[in-house]
C-alpha cells in the first residue's frame, strides 16, 4: 500500500479516511500535507500515481481503468473497514468520481462525501469536448498551458526537469481522455452529498451537472484564486475545516 498511498500521519482510530486524488502532473507532496490540518477523527491518504516520486521508474498508467483497478485492489480492505470520503482536484476529480462509480457498481460501496474541485461535471458537454481536445506534443506549448493555469509561477531552467514535467502532464491528460461515463445508460449513481469547489479567477467550468449524479445534497463554493487556489493557505484552511465539518456531520 505504501507504493500507492502517501499517509504522513497514521491515525488508526480515525472515524473516517479522506482519500485525496492529485491533478494532472501532480504527486502527493501538497495534498498529503493536509493531514496536519485535520484532527484525529480523519486520516488522510493521498494517491500516488505511477511514473512519479517513488514510482518514477514505473511506466505511466495507460488509461483510467488501470488506475481504478489498482486503487480498488490495493485499498478494498480499507474501503470496507471504515467510512471514507474522496477529494479530487482537476484530473483528480475525475479519478475520484470514476473510482467511486466503480466501488458503487461492483462492491456496493460509496464515499460518505464526494469533494470535487475545478472540473467540469463528467456528464456535461464541456467534459466531452475536453476529452477530445488536442494534446500538444510540443513541450513548450504544454508547459505554457500549465503556467497559464497557475500551476507554475516560473518554469524550471533545467531541460531534463522541464521535459519530465511535460511528459507527466501529457500522460495524465491522455488518461483523462479515457474516462468512460454515460449518464443516460444508468440511474443516478450516488446517494452521498457532493461538494464542488473552484477558484474565482480560474476558467469557467460546467459544474451544475454534478448535482444530477446524486440523490444527496450538492453544494458549490467559489474561493479566491486561480486553478490552484487550493494551495493558498487561507483557502487550505477553509477547505480542510469545511471537509471536517461535512464528514463529522455525516451519518458514520
UniProtKB/TrEMBL annotation:
Domain Thioesterase TesA-like: 19-239
A GO biological process held by the record: medium-chain fatty acid biosynthetic process
EC number(s) recorded for this UniProt protein: 3.1.2.14
Gene Ontology terms for molecular function: fatty acyl-[ACP] hydrolase activity
Swiss-Prot/TrEMBL keywords: Fatty acid biosynthesis, Fatty acid metabolism, Hydrolase, Lipid biosynthesis, Lipid metabolism
Repeat listed as a keyword: no
Record field: catalytic activity: (9Z)-octadecenoyl-[ACP] + H2O = (9Z)-octadecenoate + holo-[ACP] + H(+)
Similarity field: Belongs to the thioesterase family.
Protein name (record): S-acyl fatty acid synthase thioesterase, medium chain
Organism expressing this protein natively: Drymodes brunneopygia
Originating gene: Sast
Amino acid at each position: 500500500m505504501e507504493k500507492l498511498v502517501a499517509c504522513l500521519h497514521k491515525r488508526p482510530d480515525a472515524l473516517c479516511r479522506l482519500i485525496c486524488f492529485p491533478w494532472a502532473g501532480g504527486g502527493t507532496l501538497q495534498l498529503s500535507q493536509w493531514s496536519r490540518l485535520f484532527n484525529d477523527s480523519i486520516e488522510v491518504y493521498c494517491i500516488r500515481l505511477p511514473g512519479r516520486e517513488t514510482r518514477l521508474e514505473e511506466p505511466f498508467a495507460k488509461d483510467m481503468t488501470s488506475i481504478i483497478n489498482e486503487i480498488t485492489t490495493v485499498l478494498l480492505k480499507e474501503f470496507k473497514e471504515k467510512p471514507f470520503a474522496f477529494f479530487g482536484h482537476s484530473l483528480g476529480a475525475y479519478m475520484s468520481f470514476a473510482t467511486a462509480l466503480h466501488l458503487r457498481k461492483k462492491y456496493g460501496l460509496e464515499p460518505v462525501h464526494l469533494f470535487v474541485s475545478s472540473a467540469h461535471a463528467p456528464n456535461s458537454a464541456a467534459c466531452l469536448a475536453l476529452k477530445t481536445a488536442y494534446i500538444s506534443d510540443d513541450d513548450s506549448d504544454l508547459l505554457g498551458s500549465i503556467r497559464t493555469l497557475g500551476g507554475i509561477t516560473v518554469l524550471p531552467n533545467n531541460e531534463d526537469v522541464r521535459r519530465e514535467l511535460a511528459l507527466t502532464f501529457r500522460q495524465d491528460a491522455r488518461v483523462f481522455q479515457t474516462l468512460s461515463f454515460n449518464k443516460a445508460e444508468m440511474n443516478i449513481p450516488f446517494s452521498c452529498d457532493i461538494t464542488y469547489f473552484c477558484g474565482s479567477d480560474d476558467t469557467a467550468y460546467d459544474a451544475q451537472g454534478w448535482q444530477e449524479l446524486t440523490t444527496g445534497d450538492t453544494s458549490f463554493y467559489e474561493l479566491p484564486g486561480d486553478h490552484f487556489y487550493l494551495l493558498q493557505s487561507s483557502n487550505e484552511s477553509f477547505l480542510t475545516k469545511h471537509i471536517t465539518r461535512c464528514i463529522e456531520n455525516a451519518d458514520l
